């Protein structure tokens, strides 16, 4: 490792800072009475060299667009990150002692309540994908900014890590430097590979990464490897750093039994006495990035839906809309999980290929990259089959904690997809997406409303889920119909309504068929398109239920739990309304779409029967 | 590749069979009008050599314990598997033509409705983990049986694959042979690596696998590599097979635009004319495995809970129970995601280390391995933090479609975990687990009931989720109290009850505190422990609501959507009951457990206030 260019005083200064990071980490976790000091201590030199040597970063303006970025994938080392900010003078040493307390934003794992945290971490194995998203955003914006991601060795067991490694390696993404803190010890035992740093190197190399294996407690080695990462060698770089958990305190170092445990108060002085840290230093002078150019004023994401012909599936509405959206607003990007000809995300390639990212069959990386893109100001739309968002629900959950705005478009909803069978049918997607904190759940029934809801999604904060369908759908709406979040449409009504039918997507069309049949028999019903499942218009639905005689029937191409029927039940529960819920009960199977709708009793026949049951 | 031992007639026979598999695949998908014939054709020689040469397998008794096993991870090639069964004489050629129809079990992707399918596939990247589970079961049972897993090249982008590769490589699991069908083409474009078979080889090698790179259309090469996999070289084996999608028909072979498309009826004869397949052959004579020994009669999983002292967390109850269960029934196995000292799964190591599997931080592989173990008759318990089951929800969803019986134990539920913050808090786990088809959701409030519910889980079919908590919990129950699925406990009641409180876990204890306070003020309330959230005792709850004056308050350490409050709302909606739902509204943060329960209004104070609101 070349060290010729590094002066002795710089080495000493970085080592001093590293030791001060250790001291801060120990003090703050002991004050908190919980936390992971030994996981911080192994990475002290890494953090010091990354932040105080490698990064061009303005700690006093951490959201500056041209900053290099840092993602703490091993989020339990949060006190280390907070310690860095104390060395920059952004936090005081007193602030650090409020770690993990209710009134402090210095949470147990980092969240974007803090301005210097782009995305929440703490669920392991996601940070590299987030970092790739940040790095892609810099590329799109034309900034020469690098993203640094600090991973634990234990978390490299997570498949998400290898999805990200494969993706960045394949794309030759050259503005990402990952650092793996190989401290050998996990929570309850040794990691899979212990200190076999060469094994880590081989694995990263096999996916096309540049690898430097270093002594993670050698400032010289780390600086040299970080500099190599910045050099023009093509592709992403990883530093595999051999470290010791608890490094710096003899009775913590490389010892079992200290994961996630602070040093007790009565032993803190003993621990600190072993660490050679200058008691007082001036704040670190940051290396600043270039000032960003005056931001281009982005357009509002806006366009007019096409007048779809009858028979366009809602997923086709997505394809039309996302292409227009990309043209309307330069912040919009689209990602897809190698089903772009099914979700129709492929239209973006025609509109602007630089803003389409093929994620291949790797949904966890897909969503976590989108979170990174969103943290850098992009408006990502992520599409795949609705069923497969089940696979990255933790990444969606973490994106909600990260308070980023991302849009998820799940196609092939429900049994109405037909012959492909249950593995491809999204039947719990509404349930899981409703359960995301602050989420919005949209469910268009024709291609026109789908287009409008895509536009709406782009303007909506938080996690937005848009459910599209595979089957052809009659066109219901005109292109000037508005679809505000938190409302619904009344499609059929009369003064004589004996029941209220609530559907969305394919079941709305079944409800409309049932309406026709019932009307022919002199039974009047009201029909609602619940295109916005969350937030739900509770007062509006209650009023409609009363107007329809207090008899309500919901029908959905989804399992009963957590879907439309339950959402409506929570709204109507204290009103004395009579509610009948039609949903997919039991495991479905392959078959024709219509056969399945009938067999699982969510078709017009079943709706009619339900209405006759309640009005008789 | 050594071919000396393979006779010319054997080569011809296997090649003939491979071509017949192509013919069947083409015919059946054209008859169905949908499906993936070209994905079958690339793997025809692979399937022929695996089933008709390598495997010791009784196709007429596919669940025989000593059989070698086959998992079709690339589930969209289902017609190929069905074609194999036709060559064995298990299915007729007419059966094949019912592919994907409602009345046939030959679904679009394989499911265990068919006796020769151990676990459903179709959501990609899970089959290798399932195969590892099957292979582990054979090891536990002492059978010399091998598992073969056929993967597509596209699906190796899934992180789940690399979790499985890492795990099996680390464990040196020597009875697994994976075959990667590198046919270059994905659904909408070329895969990440195209025909770079050496790259695949390097990646598997870096994780400790034995690799053979072969021409996947050479029967000789495949036989040689399959034989090498069976030899005593230690560790798992993978065959990287270079193939062509649509192989055998010139205008399908290696062509874009044919993924997931059957040959039109009017071109079928043209296609078949290109394939040299004998029109009629006798059924393949299988190579049978040894007869299994007379099965040991397993005990019923049964034990008596310990009389826990006040202050034992429910997760400690899990630890005590799982160790007893392992002792009581040899089918029980435990898996944990490197948090065994937090979930208390570590107790199993003391009871029988051979039945504990450390899954490391890789939850997708963990759950899919459990599905494989269950498919082979084991009773797996999988533990990690409840929040992290979000990460493998697709694997859980697929396990439900596989109709296997697995038990998931999620600890650290809710905001009551305190300082670690939102990334570690399970707040949507009840919602997602309720949405699983046929699932059971259990939620003990003390260590004694937790023990009983662990015993119950072991006897319960399907996916069982048991939610445990981090905080200490007062002991409520005696060790002889039964906890049947589908019931609840009434802990406080009187003839004068003005409201019904429904809680579980930490909120039950808050409800009991509220009861005391309200009673001191002369307000009588009924308190229910809803230890079984699904299936819910609807009639019982309705009767209790009426008995308590029609005022119901639910309180849960979970987001509002899909949790206890919604489950109760669906039960009470048509009864005219007044329901107040207390749940965690908005993103939580770090803090002390009690502070958080109070701030998010699910503590005794909030319950009291809610009761006073409804009874005044």
How is this structure best described in words?
Two copies of one chain form a homodimer. By secondary structure, the first copy, chain A, is of the alpha/beta class. Chain A has helices at 8-32, 37-41, 44-54, 78-87, 93-96, 127-141, 159-171, 197-206, 219-230, 265-273, 314-328, 340-343, 347-351, 363-375, 393-401, 429-434, 447-459, 506-520, 538-547, 564-572, 593-599, 604-615; strands at 69-72, 147-152, 176-182, 210-215, 237-242, 332-336, 356-358, 379-385, 406-411, 440-442, 463-467, 489-492, 499-503, 525-529, 532-534, 551-555, 578-582. Chain A has a seven-stranded mixed sheet with strand order 7-6-8-9-11-10-15, sandwiched between helices. In chain A, helix 17 (447-459) links the parallel strand 10 and strand 11. In chain A, helix 6 runs parallel beside helix 7 (159-171) and helix 11 (314-328) crosses helix 17. The radius of gyration of chain A is 27 Å and the shape is elongated. The mean pLDDT of chain A is 96.
């Amino acid at each position: 490792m070349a060290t010729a260019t590094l002066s002795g005083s710089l080495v000493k200064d970085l080592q001093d800072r590293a030791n001060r990071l250790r001291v801060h980490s120990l003090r703050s976790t002991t004050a908190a009475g919980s936390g992971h000091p030994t996981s911080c201590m192994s990475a002290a030199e890494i953090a010091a060299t990354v932040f105080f040597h490698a990064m061009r970063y303005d700690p006093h303006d951490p959201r500056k667009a041209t900053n290099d970025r840092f993602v703490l994938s091993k989020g339990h080392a949060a006190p280390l990150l907070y310690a860095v900010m104390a060395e920059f003078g952004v936090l005081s040493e007193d602030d650090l002692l409020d770690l993990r307390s209710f009134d402090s934003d210095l949470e147990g794992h980092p969240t974007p309540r803090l301005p210097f945290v782009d995305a929440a971490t703490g669920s392991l194995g996601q940070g590299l994908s987030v970092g790739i998203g940040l790095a892609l955003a810099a590329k799109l914006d034309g900034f020469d900014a690098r993203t640094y991601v600090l991973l634990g060795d234990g978390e490299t067991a997570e498949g998400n890590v290898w999805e990200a490694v494969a993706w960045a390696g394949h794309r030759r993404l050259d503005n990402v430097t990952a650092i793996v803190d190989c401290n050998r010890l996990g929570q309850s035992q040794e990691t899979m590979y212990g200190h076999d740093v060469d094994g880590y190197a081989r694995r990263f190399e096999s996916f096309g990464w540049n690898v430097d294996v270093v002594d993670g407690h050698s400032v010289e080695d780390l600086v040299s490897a970080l500099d190599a990462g910045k050099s023009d060698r093509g592709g992403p770089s990883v530093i595999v750093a051999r470290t010791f958990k608890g490094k710096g305190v003899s009775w913590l170092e490389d010892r079992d039994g200290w994961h996630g445990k602070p040093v007790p108060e009565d032993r803190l002085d003993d621990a600190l006495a072993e660490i050679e840290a200058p008691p007082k230093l001036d704040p670190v002078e940051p290396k600043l990035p270039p000032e960003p150019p005056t931001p281009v004023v982005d357009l509002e994401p806006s366009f007019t839906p096409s007048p779809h012909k009858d028979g366009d599936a809602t997923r086709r509405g997505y394809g039309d809309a996302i292409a227009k959206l990309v043209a309307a607003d330069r912040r919009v990007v689209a990602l897809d999980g190698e089903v772009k000809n099914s979700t129709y995300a492929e239209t973006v390639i025609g509109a602007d290929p630089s803003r389409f990212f093929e994620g291949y069959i790797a949904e966890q990386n897909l969503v976590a990259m989108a979170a990174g893109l969103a943290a850098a100001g992009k408006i990502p739309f992520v599409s795949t089959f609705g069923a497969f968002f089940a696979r990255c629900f933790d990444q969606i959950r973490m994106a909600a904690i990260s308070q980023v705005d991302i849009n998820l478009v799940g196609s092939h909803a429900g049994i109405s997809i037909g012959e492909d069978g249950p593995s491809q049918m999204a039947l719990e997607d509404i349930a899981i997406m409703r359960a995301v904190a602050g989420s919005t759940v949209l469910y268009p029934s024709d291609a026109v409303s789908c287009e409008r809801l895509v536009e709406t999604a782009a303007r909506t904060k938080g996690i937005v889920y848009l459910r599209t369908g595979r089957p052809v759908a009659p066109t219901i709406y005109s292109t000037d119909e508005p679809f505000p979040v938190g409302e619904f449409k009344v499609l059929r009504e009369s003064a004589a309504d004996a029941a209220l039918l609530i559907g969305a997507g394919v079941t709305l069309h079944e409800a409309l068929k049932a309406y026709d049949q019932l009307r022919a028999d002199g039974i009047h019903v009201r029909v609602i398109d619940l295109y916005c499942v969350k937030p739900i218009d509770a007062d509006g639905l209650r009023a409609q239920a009363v107007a329809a005689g207090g008899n309500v029937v919901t029908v959905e191409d989804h399992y009963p739990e957590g879907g439309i029927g339950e959402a409506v039940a929570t709204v109507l529960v204290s009103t004395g309304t009579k509610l009948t819920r039609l949903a997919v009960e039991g495991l479905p199977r392959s078959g024709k779409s219509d056969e399945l709708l009938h067999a699982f009793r969510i078709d017009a026949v079943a709706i009619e029967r339900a209405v006759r049951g309640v009005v008789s």
